[in-house]
Amino acid sequence: MFTDDVTLSWGSSPGKIVVSFLLLLVAAGVVCAGALSIMAWRRVVITLLVLLAVEVLSYALLSARSEMYVAFRNNLIWVVVAPSVIVALGLVFAVVTERIRWAAAFKLIVFMPMAISMLAAGVIFTLVYDRAPERGVLNAAAVGVHDTFKEASHYPGVRPRESGGPLRAEGKAFATQAQVQPGQTVLLPLVAVTPEMQKKLSPAQAPSPKPGTVAGTVWADFSPGGAAKPNQVDASEKGLPKITVEAVSGTKVVATATSAADGTFAFKNLPAGSYTIRLPASNFAAPYNGVNWLGSDLVTASIIGAYIWMWAGFAMVLIGAGLAAIPRDALEAARVDGATELQVFFRVTMPLLAPVLVVVLVTLVINVLKVFDLVYIIAPGSTQQDANVLALQMYLKSFTGEGADQGVGSAIAVVLFLLVLPAMVFNIRRFRQEQA
């Protein structure tokens, strides 16, 4: 089943088929032996379902690099994470709405996403997760927080000339090729400063030698028309302010200075000796552009976040209705007996609320197993396979590409139905027990 998209990672294909068949044979023998001793029709149905589940799981485990394996794995993550988080948030929101004065407005805000279709929510979160901070809301917030605590580089991409200049590369930093002593000057010419940036800069000033001081200038060694001479400060060239400059002796940073508006800097009162002048890499680091929310590592978590945003209001409303139905006498009796609020919540409220929580949880599990829209819309083409789920894999196999195979798609649909079936059976049994 699903053998058209498998990339096996160990052994030969016949060997894998043999191992898979042996696993199925052993499982069939064990389960059928138990079924023969109990001939109830329910046991027979359970036996058939267990056999099918063993077949599917053995296939998935033996083809750990296949698209089906990724879909199974992601569906498992969805089933474990999404319903649990939604129920927990719904419970918190329901409890909060009972204790605040503006409960109606809060409920409206939380429940509002339920009025939005999956398609619209997918489009919204495609923009929310956009990689560019000027468009993506989350990355705009991440960049704002980052730049608040860590100042962004003023000159990303700026560098010295590749040859013929006084600077050499030292990792991502740049240092002088020749050492200097107090009383001497040093020139630090840089290029690749954008014309837009140069318009905002002041003219560069050549350094003046002073006793006991290493003075220098860091500037944009370029002027329009190319009239300026390389490695010399010309009147038409611009100084680079706010650049950190270090005086290094051996491997130790002895002094640090910051360039002024005209690009000049000075290290005063340096002990006698020779120093290397270095421009640290922090001056030229690329700006922080946020998190790649839809990259291969975070795409599934990001889509689950969008799903939680949509369904938290649903859980809040149902759990809130359950809380409203709890007899207040039981809560007051527990408080009179000396129970704290936490004890009342966990020992009285939660047991009485358990049937509602189970209903919400099972409903969400069924919905999560069928999730398709959000994954298809939010995940970009480059990481869609990393976010793949069974419903999406069914669509891709049935209707896309030159090798579309509706037989394989139908098989995936059957597997999806069988995975949903236990939750449906559980719900039916619970309803019957409540009616009885």
UniProtKB/TrEMBL annotation:
Localization annotation: Cell membrane
A Pfam family this chain is assigned to: BPD_transp_1
Membrane-spanning parts: 17-38, 45-64, 76-96, 108-129, 298-323, 344-366, 408-428
GO terms under cellular component: plasma membrane
Domain ABC transmembrane type-1: 72-427
Source organism superkingdom: Bacteria
Main location, first listed in the record: membrane
GO BP terms: transmembrane transport
Membrane-protein topology: Multi-pass membrane protein
UniProt xrefs under InterPro entries: MetI-like, MetI-like_sf, UgpAE/MalFG_permease
Keywords linked to the UniProt accession: Cell membrane, Membrane, Transmembrane, Transmembrane helix, Transport
Family note: Belongs to the binding-protein-dependent transport system permease family.
Annotated protein name in UniProt: ABC transporter permease subunit
Taxonomic path: Bacteria, Bacillati, Actinomycetota, Actinomycetes, Streptosporangiales
